[in-house]
Amino acid sequence: MKRLLILPIVLLFGLLSAACFQNNGNEVLPPPFVQTGTLPEFHDTLLVNTHVYAEKDKEALSLDVYNHLKSESEQPKPVLFFVHGGGFYTGTRKEPDIDQYCRWFSEKGFLVVNISYRLYLKGQSFHCDQPSSEKINAFRTAVSDLRSATDFILKMYKGQIERDQVFISGSSAGAEVVLHAPYWDAEIMSLDKPDLEKNFKYAGVLAFAGAMVDTSLITKENMVPTMMYHGTCDPLVPYGTAIHHFCPENSVGGLLLHGSRSIYSRITGLMGTVELISTCGGKHGRAVAPIRESKDELLLFMERCIRGEHFNQKLMIEGDLSKCRYGKEWSCDE
């Protein structure tokens, strides 16, 4: 009698699973596997939903939500956003390393959100011939999109997430986006709507080889816990304070940026929570390395923030300065 009941249940589960793979923006990964003579388990199912979170400049902006379901009664989860790099003229959220990063943190209990954003400089570049004003516009456009995506998730997944545990992470250009998103004033910067509600505050920033245009944006009242990775000899995004790409000072694209070392100093001076992991002699490849190699460290940082811990840490990874063209002025002995 029990065997007769099992077969219809398995068939019904199979039909429901197949429906999830129709063209509705949902994907269940991996497909359910049912052993002969056993009932399917509900737990350990990764659900990936794709949503259009906004339409701007005639472009539909999408994001992927990774939600690892472990039981039928899920507790509200912390949230982790990821913003890809690419110099604001290229790049995509559809990268294997990013996908693995999102899966990993989803398995650790986060609702993970991987976004696309408008590439303001698509077909151009972010080099020394690009006017600084246009570089700022590229920052502003992407920050607007991240904040719109955040607003979308807060509303769409209300009740399923912890509103005060929303973290943002990004690599290279994405790191510059997440470093500005908590601090720019929507009216002053003419950020697009929908924007964040006035009382919302990100729980933390994870920035991989990023920089800010002005560290004075960070104040004792608005600062958020920040973890950064950077190579001291990064030739594109300065580790300290220098012109982006180390362009000539008189070039139209001579935009002064404040890298991870300078941001660390600012937050430390304000007695804030901050962690900086630097690689002596490291280049811009440090923008990608944490996604592949440092997930346990990133998880620990967020867990400590969620527990309300206050800390200040700095680590210098040994390396070689002999091949550095830029950044030798920043000592590896700090």
- Reported by name, the CATH topology of the largest domain is Rossmann fold
Span between N and C termini? 73 Å
Annotation field: number of helices = 7
- Mean pLDDT equals 88
Q: What is this structure's SSE topology?
A:
Blueprint: H1 2-19, E1 26-29, E2 45-56, E3 59-69, E4 77-83, H2 96-107, E5 111-115, H3 132-156, E6 161-171, H4 173-180, E7 204-208, E8 211-212, E9 226-231, E10 241-243, E11 256-259, H5 260-269, E12 274-279, H6 289-293, H7 295-306, E13 312-317
Parallel strand pairs: 4-5, 4-6, 6-7, 7-9, 9-12, 12-13
Antiparallel strand pairs: 1-2, 2-3, 3-5, 8-11, 10-11
What's this entry about, in short?
The protein is an alpha/beta fold and 334 residues long. The chain is built from 7 helices and 13 strands. It folds into 2 domains: 34 residues; 276 residues, Alpha/Beta hydrolase fold, catalytic domain (Rossmann fold, 3-Layer(aba) Sandwich).
Using brief descriptors, characterize the structure shown.
334 residues; single chain; alpha/beta; Rossmann fold; 3-stranded antiparallel β-sheet
Tell me what you see in this structure.
The model is unreliable at 1-24 and 28-42 (pLDDT under 50). The chain is α/β, with parallel strands linked by helices and 334 residues long. The termini are far apart. It contains 7 helices and 13 strands. Helix 3 (132-156) packs across helix 4 (173-180). The strands form 2 sheets. The protein has a 10-stranded mixed beta sheet with strand order 1-2-3-5-4-6-7-9-12-13, sandwiched between helices. Strands 8-11-10 form a 3-stranded antiparallel beta sheet. The protein is globular.
